[in-house]
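Hello again, I could really use a second opinion on something today. I've been staring at a protein lately and its backbone has me curious. Please have a think about how the structure follows from the sequence. I owe you a coffee for this, so here goes:
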Amino acid sequence: MATTTRDRSEPTTLAQRLADARTRTDDLFSILRPGALLDRPIPERHRLIFYLGHLEAFDWNLVARQGHGLPAFREDFDKLFAFGIDPVDGGLPSEPASAWPAEAEVRAYCREVRDKVDACVLGAQEPRSEQDRATLVSMAIEHRLMHAETLAYLLHQLPHDRKEPRHDPAAHRVTVSPRVIAIPEGTATLGQALGAFGWDNEFDEHTVHVPAFRIEEHKVTNGRFLDFVKDGGYDARALWSDEDWAWKESHGIRRPGFWSEHDGVLSYRGMFAEVPLPLDAPVYLSHAEAAAFARWSKAALPTEAEFHRAAYGTPEGAERAYPWGDEEPGPRHGNFDFHRFDPTPVGTYPDGASAFGVAEMVGNGWEWTRTPFAPFAGFHPHPFYAGYSKDFFDGKHFVIKGASPRTAACFLRRSFRNWFQPRYPYVYATVRLVRA
């Protein structure tokens, strides 16, 4: 029997959903070998111990303190672990590992938070009158699942000897031919309808007109991007914006961040091992590199609306909940929902194609758009989490759509929007080109 919206808001169901999300993040922390919790695998981010405390501090501050009025028991930790960082123009964190509390102290805080939050979720104490328990807990769950992906790409940058190895199941290899698909003009519905659950930047639902365009059937592969590298794309000044060129030159970037080169041989930095560069898998890269590749290809990145039209539209004019239809996401539809750590060859999931035949628009890597992250008309900061979106409406972040192998299935809803800085090479994001 299908789970109803009411079923999902029942205390026992909320508690189970939260427990399932905790299992995802607990499993990631279990990958770390002793001592790695104090590593900082990405210079722009906190040390990993921050995320251990942050997941519980967020739940505590949102559900227990704000939602139910519980008094603080470690206010210093509530503040220390409250917010991450997203430095755009320098200002990288530089504090020593010794500045952080001991792991045992953080884990004790986490255990106590979980006990108190669970009691709130199960109804031991009524929420404040203006708060809705189901919304609060759903936000906590989705926030944790977002960080399950953040943790994955952070751990991806750790040296392999700092992690306990895991193994992806073997992928079915297919042969695909490059194809460009014509998408007729039509409409695309962006955003979420009022009354449904969503994050503040998803509202309000609205329809936009999308002129006709052409889009590639598949994401760009490592093999295609290698042609750009071999053709001197990283040295062609005309292909790069001023800001992107300055970033590339100052960091000495000559290939995507997930590639390595040893004695002239290219390899892919997988989560647990370096492997020969998989030429048929999607290339993961920054927006800066994606934009330069698009110029080299005499094409463009899609807009957010073009992505929606190609992914969810139909030749008849109706729109779908998912590219393949209204069926809930499953393993046959794409590489998402934590089934794998690394990408699979493009074309592996034909059952995930859109009505227009565009392949794998969700899963196997988020897709960069050329749309700056900005509010929709009617935007209001969420009263429970006012800084979630508005702090990033700065013209320095771009919308990415779709999903990666480490994206939870709940984020495959059509209205969900993700965003990143253009010169951030660590996220599981790829590129698909469009043409007029």
Q: What stands out?
A: The CA atoms of residues 37 and 48 lie 5 Å apart.
